[in-house]
Amino acid sequence: MIDAAPEMVSFDPDSPPTRPDDWKEALFVPGGGYPAVKAALEQRRRTRGPQKTPKKVPTTIRFDADVLQGLRATGKGWQTRVNEAMREWLERRG
């Protein structure tokens, strides 16, 4: 960390001035240091942002073990695919 008065910091003409929008995603970590910054970034990654509309509603559903195993075996996004399959089933019933 450089403890210099602002007038002692040299100006870089190749570096454009920052705008407020440049700082909207900034993360302030009191005390700083690599471990604190790393922990703060990991915490931010675990936090979900706002959902796209329409919002999903958490629920509980019971599947036979072999059905659930088969669904999970299809890989990432299996819950979305189940949701799409249920929507198609409802439309066909309509």
Automatic annotation (TrEMBL):
Residues 1-20 are annotated as: Disordered. It holds the Pfam family BrnA_antitoxin. InterPro entries: BrnA_antitoxin (IPR025528). This is BrnA antitoxin family protein. The lineage of its organism: Bacteria, Pseudomonadati, Pseudomonadota, Gammaproteobacteria, Chromatiales.
